[in-house]
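Contributing new complexes? Match this layout with 3-methyl-2-oxobutanoic acid.
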Amino acid sequence: MKNTVTSLQKQKDNHDKITMLTAYDYSTAKLIDEAGINTILVGDSLGMVMLGYEDTLSVTMEDMIHHTKAVKRGAKNAFIVADMPFMSYQTSVYDAVVNAGRLVKEGGAHAVKLEGGEKVCPHIEAIVKASIPVVAHLGLTPQSVNEFGGFRVQGKEKDKALELIKDAKRVEEAGACMVVLECVPAPLAQLITESLHIPTIGIGAGAGCDGQVLVYQDMLGMYDNVTPKFAKRFGEIGAAMKAAFTAYINETKEGSFPAKEHTFSIDETVLEECKKAIEEN
Ligand code: KIV
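Output block (do not edit by hand):
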Protein backbone atom coordinates (compact mmCIF):
# COMPACT_ATOMS: atom_id res chain seq x y z
CA MET A 1 0.00 0.00 0.00
CA LYS A 2 1.29 3.47 -0.94
CA ASN A 3 2.13 5.72 2.01
CA THR A 4 0.85 9.29 1.78
CA VAL A 5 0.51 12.37 4.00
CA THR A 6 -3.02 11.16 4.78
CA SER A 7 -2.03 7.58 5.66
CA LEU A 8 0.81 8.83 7.87
CA GLN A 9 -1.55 11.19 9.72
CA LYS A 10 -3.99 8.27 10.18
CA GLN A 11 -1.15 6.25 11.71
CA LYS A 12 -0.67 8.96 14.37
CA ASP A 13 -4.41 9.13 15.01
CA ASN A 14 -4.55 5.31 15.37
CA HIS A 15 -1.39 5.12 17.54
CA ASP A 16 0.30 3.04 14.85
CA LYS A 17 4.03 3.91 14.91
CA ILE A 18 5.50 5.42 11.74
CA THR A 19 8.77 3.92 10.47
CA MET A 20 11.36 5.98 8.60
CA LEU A 21 14.91 5.15 7.48
CA THR A 22 17.37 7.06 5.37
CA ALA A 23 18.38 5.79 1.92
CA TYR A 24 20.49 7.38 -0.77
CA ASP A 25 20.65 4.85 -3.61
CA TYR A 26 18.47 2.53 -5.70
CA SER A 27 19.32 -0.88 -4.24
CA THR A 28 19.15 0.14 -0.57
CA ALA A 29 15.88 2.00 -1.16
CA LYS A 30 14.47 -1.13 -2.86
CA LEU A 31 15.44 -3.36 0.08
CA ILE A 32 14.04 -0.92 2.66
CA ASP A 33 10.84 -0.45 0.66
CA GLU A 34 10.37 -4.20 0.24
CA ALA A 35 10.81 -4.60 4.01
CA GLY A 36 7.67 -2.45 4.38
CA ILE A 37 8.96 0.92 5.61
CA ASN A 38 6.42 3.78 5.71
CA THR A 39 8.77 6.55 4.69
CA ILE A 40 12.29 7.00 3.31
CA LEU A 41 14.34 10.09 4.07
CA VAL A 42 16.95 11.08 1.53
CA GLY A 43 18.82 12.91 4.26
CA ASP A 44 21.60 15.42 3.78
CA SER A 45 23.42 13.03 6.13
CA LEU A 46 24.49 11.60 2.77
CA GLY A 47 27.24 14.22 2.92
CA MET A 48 28.77 12.32 5.83
CA VAL A 49 27.84 8.65 5.30
CA MET A 50 28.02 8.53 1.48
CA LEU A 51 30.40 11.33 0.49
CA GLY A 52 32.77 11.40 3.49
CA TYR A 53 32.43 15.06 4.55
CA GLU A 54 32.74 15.76 8.27
CA ASP A 55 29.32 17.47 8.41
CA THR A 56 26.30 18.11 6.17
CA LEU A 57 27.16 21.67 5.14
CA SER A 58 28.84 20.88 1.79
CA VAL A 59 25.87 18.99 0.36
CA THR A 60 24.45 20.64 -2.79
CA MET A 61 21.06 20.66 -4.51
CA GLU A 62 22.65 18.59 -7.30
CA ASP A 63 23.76 15.94 -4.73
CA MET A 64 20.24 15.82 -3.27
CA ILE A 65 18.49 15.56 -6.65
CA HIS A 66 20.90 12.86 -7.87
CA HIS A 67 20.34 10.65 -4.79
CA THR A 68 16.59 11.33 -4.57
CA LYS A 69 16.17 10.16 -8.18
CA ALA A 70 17.97 6.90 -7.37
CA VAL A 71 15.82 6.31 -4.26
CA LYS A 72 12.67 7.10 -6.23
CA ARG A 73 13.53 4.34 -8.75
CA GLY A 74 13.94 1.82 -5.91
CA ALA A 75 10.99 2.68 -3.65
CA LYS A 76 7.51 1.78 -4.80
CA ASN A 77 5.38 2.34 -1.68
CA ALA A 78 7.39 4.48 0.73
CA PHE A 79 6.65 8.19 1.15
CA ILE A 80 9.88 9.85 0.02
CA VAL A 81 11.14 12.91 1.89
CA ALA A 82 14.15 14.80 0.53
CA ASP A 83 16.26 17.10 2.67
CA MET A 84 16.73 20.69 1.58
CA PRO A 85 20.52 21.18 1.83
CA PHE A 86 22.29 24.02 3.66
CA MET A 87 21.73 27.39 1.93
CA SER A 88 19.01 26.09 -0.40
CA TYR A 89 16.29 27.78 1.70
CA GLN A 90 17.96 29.98 4.35
CA THR A 91 18.74 32.63 1.70
CA SER A 92 15.11 33.56 0.90
CA VAL A 93 11.52 32.34 0.77
CA TYR A 94 11.79 32.48 -3.02
CA ASP A 95 14.86 30.18 -3.04
CA ALA A 96 13.05 27.83 -0.66
CA VAL A 97 10.09 27.41 -3.03
CA VAL A 98 12.26 27.07 -6.15
CA ASN A 99 14.54 24.45 -4.55
CA ALA A 100 11.68 22.51 -2.93
CA GLY A 101 10.11 22.43 -6.39
CA ARG A 102 13.30 21.01 -7.89
CA LEU A 103 13.42 18.17 -5.33
CA VAL A 104 9.86 17.20 -6.27
CA LYS A 105 10.00 17.86 -10.02
CA GLU A 106 13.52 16.62 -10.80
CA GLY A 107 14.15 14.27 -7.85
CA GLY A 108 10.67 12.75 -7.52
CA ALA A 109 10.33 13.45 -3.77
CA HIS A 110 6.86 13.48 -2.22
CA ALA A 111 7.88 16.00 0.45
CA VAL A 112 10.84 18.10 1.52
CA LYS A 113 12.42 18.53 4.96
CA LEU A 114 14.04 21.68 6.28
CA GLU A 115 15.63 22.56 9.58
CA GLY A 116 14.48 25.22 12.04
CA GLY A 117 11.45 26.57 13.86
CA GLU A 118 9.81 29.98 13.92
CA LYS A 119 12.41 31.62 11.65
CA VAL A 120 11.68 29.23 8.75
CA CYS A 121 7.88 29.39 9.11
CA PRO A 122 7.50 31.86 6.19
CA HIS A 123 9.48 29.38 4.05
CA ILE A 124 7.29 26.44 5.18
CA GLU A 125 4.10 28.42 4.46
CA ALA A 126 5.27 29.35 0.97
CA ILE A 127 6.35 25.79 0.07
CA VAL A 128 3.06 24.37 1.36
CA LYS A 129 1.20 27.00 -0.72
CA ALA A 130 3.01 25.53 -3.74
CA SER A 131 1.34 22.19 -2.82
CA ILE A 132 4.56 20.59 -1.57
CA PRO A 133 4.31 18.82 1.81
CA VAL A 134 6.96 19.94 4.31
CA VAL A 135 8.55 18.01 7.15
CA ALA A 136 10.07 20.26 9.81
CA HIS A 137 13.21 19.35 11.78
CA LEU A 138 13.79 20.61 15.36
CA GLY A 139 16.19 19.96 18.23
CA LEU A 140 19.68 19.08 17.03
CA THR A 141 19.58 20.51 13.52
CA PRO A 142 22.91 19.43 11.96
CA GLN A 143 23.05 22.39 9.54
CA SER A 144 23.50 24.61 12.66
CA VAL A 145 26.44 22.54 13.97
CA ASN A 146 28.74 25.59 14.02
CA GLU A 147 26.18 27.63 15.97
CA PHE A 148 25.67 24.74 18.48
CA GLY A 149 29.42 24.07 18.79
CA GLY A 150 29.00 20.35 18.04
CA PHE A 151 26.39 17.59 17.80
CA ARG A 152 24.70 18.00 21.23
CA VAL A 153 21.37 17.14 22.85
CA GLN A 154 18.98 20.13 22.68
CA GLY A 155 16.22 21.38 25.01
CA LYS A 156 17.62 20.37 28.40
CA GLU A 157 17.42 23.90 29.91
CA LYS A 158 14.04 25.55 30.63
CA ASP A 159 14.30 28.37 28.06
CA LYS A 160 15.50 26.00 25.30
CA ALA A 161 12.77 23.46 26.16
CA LEU A 162 10.07 26.16 26.04
CA GLU A 163 11.49 27.43 22.74
CA LEU A 164 11.29 23.91 21.28
CA ILE A 165 7.64 23.57 22.36
CA LYS A 166 6.87 26.96 20.75
CA ASP A 167 8.77 26.12 17.56
CA ALA A 168 6.89 22.81 17.22
CA LYS A 169 3.54 24.61 17.49
CA ARG A 170 4.66 27.27 14.98
CA VAL A 171 5.81 24.80 12.31
CA GLU A 172 2.53 22.93 12.67
CA GLU A 173 0.60 26.21 12.24
CA ALA A 174 2.76 27.04 9.20
CA GLY A 175 1.51 23.84 7.56
CA ALA A 176 4.21 21.22 8.21
CA CYS A 177 2.85 17.68 7.81
CA MET A 178 5.36 16.05 10.21
CA VAL A 179 8.19 17.12 12.47
CA VAL A 180 11.48 15.35 13.13
CA LEU A 181 12.74 15.76 16.72
CA GLU A 182 16.46 15.04 16.93
CA CYS A 183 18.40 14.60 20.19
CA VAL A 184 15.69 15.93 22.47
CA PRO A 185 15.11 14.58 26.04
CA ALA A 186 12.51 11.79 25.79
CA PRO A 187 9.93 13.28 28.23
CA LEU A 188 10.05 16.63 26.38
CA ALA A 189 9.63 14.90 22.99
CA GLN A 190 6.62 13.04 24.41
CA LEU A 191 5.07 16.32 25.64
CA ILE A 192 5.57 17.88 22.21
CA THR A 193 4.12 14.79 20.51
CA GLU A 194 1.00 14.96 22.69
CA SER A 195 0.58 18.69 22.04
CA LEU A 196 0.68 18.40 18.23
CA HIS A 197 -1.88 17.10 15.72
CA ILE A 198 0.81 16.22 13.17
CA PRO A 199 3.13 13.20 13.68
CA THR A 200 6.52 13.56 15.34
CA ILE A 201 9.39 11.37 14.15
CA GLY A 202 12.11 10.91 16.76
CA ILE A 203 15.82 10.29 16.44
CA GLY A 204 17.40 10.23 19.87
CA ALA A 205 14.08 11.51 21.23
CA GLY A 206 12.63 8.42 22.92
CA ALA A 207 9.73 6.05 22.29
CA GLY A 208 7.04 8.66 22.99
CA CYS A 209 7.27 10.04 19.43
CA ASP A 210 4.77 8.95 16.76
CA GLY A 211 7.55 7.34 14.75
CA GLN A 212 11.30 6.75 14.56
CA VAL A 213 14.02 7.46 12.03
CA LEU A 214 17.61 6.18 11.85
CA VAL A 215 20.45 6.62 9.40
CA TYR A 216 20.74 3.14 7.89
CA GLN A 217 24.54 3.01 8.09
CA ASP A 218 24.27 3.67 11.85
CA MET A 219 21.77 0.86 12.44
CA LEU A 220 23.82 -1.59 10.33
CA GLY A 221 27.26 -0.78 11.75
CA MET A 222 28.54 0.61 8.46
CA TYR A 223 29.77 4.04 9.64
CA ASP A 224 31.77 4.51 12.82
CA ASN A 225 33.20 8.05 12.40
CA VAL A 226 30.45 9.23 14.79
CA THR A 227 28.54 6.79 17.03
CA PRO A 228 25.47 8.48 18.46
CA LYS A 229 24.06 7.05 21.72
CA PHE A 230 20.63 6.54 20.13
CA ALA A 231 21.88 4.54 17.12
CA LYS A 232 21.00 0.95 18.09
CA ARG A 233 22.82 -1.62 15.95
CA PHE A 234 20.20 -3.86 14.31
CA GLY A 235 22.87 -5.69 12.30
CA GLU A 236 26.64 -5.93 11.81
CA ILE A 237 26.64 -5.44 8.06
CA GLY A 238 29.84 -3.35 8.06
CA ALA A 239 31.77 -6.29 9.60
CA ALA A 240 30.06 -8.76 7.23
CA MET A 241 31.03 -6.60 4.22
CA LYS A 242 34.66 -6.34 5.35
CA ALA A 243 34.83 -10.14 5.84
CA ALA A 244 33.40 -10.71 2.34
CA PHE A 245 35.82 -8.19 0.75
CA THR A 246 38.75 -9.92 2.50
CA ALA A 247 37.58 -13.36 1.31
CA TYR A 248 37.32 -12.05 -2.28
CA ILE A 249 40.85 -10.59 -2.13
CA ASN A 250 42.30 -13.81 -0.69
CA GLU A 251 40.51 -16.16 -3.13
CA THR A 252 41.45 -14.00 -6.11
CA LYS A 253 45.10 -13.91 -5.05
CA GLU A 254 45.32 -17.68 -4.45
CA GLY A 255 43.40 -18.42 -7.70
CA SER A 256 40.43 -20.29 -6.18
CA PHE A 257 38.11 -17.59 -7.55
CA PRO A 258 36.65 -17.73 -10.14
CA ALA A 259 35.85 -21.47 -9.98
CA LYS A 260 34.45 -23.49 -12.92
CA GLU A 261 30.83 -22.64 -12.00
CA HIS A 262 31.56 -18.91 -12.36
CA THR A 263 32.93 -19.20 -15.92
CA PHE A 264 31.52 -19.66 -19.45
CA SER A 265 32.51 -22.55 -21.75
CA ILE A 266 33.36 -22.52 -25.47
CA ASP A 267 33.16 -25.30 -28.05
CA GLU A 268 36.52 -27.13 -28.37
CA THR A 269 36.53 -26.76 -32.19
CA VAL A 270 36.06 -23.00 -31.93
CA LEU A 271 38.89 -22.86 -29.42
CA GLU A 272 41.20 -24.83 -31.74
CA GLU A 273 40.41 -22.35 -34.56
CA CYS A 274 41.26 -19.48 -32.21
CA LYS A 275 44.61 -21.07 -31.27
CA LYS A 276 45.44 -21.56 -34.95
CA ALA A 277 44.57 -17.93 -35.74
CA ILE A 278 46.86 -16.70 -32.95
CA GLU A 279 49.74 -18.92 -34.16
CA GLU A 280 49.33 -17.66 -37.74
CA ASN A 281 49.55 -14.00 -36.67
O1 KIV B 1 19.93 13.94 7.21
C1 KIV B 1 19.40 13.08 7.93
O2 KIV B 1 19.65 11.87 7.81
C2 KIV B 1 18.46 13.53 8.94
C3 KIV B 1 18.07 12.55 10.00
C4 KIV B 1 19.17 12.41 10.98
C5 KIV B 1 16.79 12.90 10.63
O3 KIV B 1 18.07 14.66 8.93
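Reviewers usually confirm one structural detail per submission. For this one: The longest strand covers residues 134-139.
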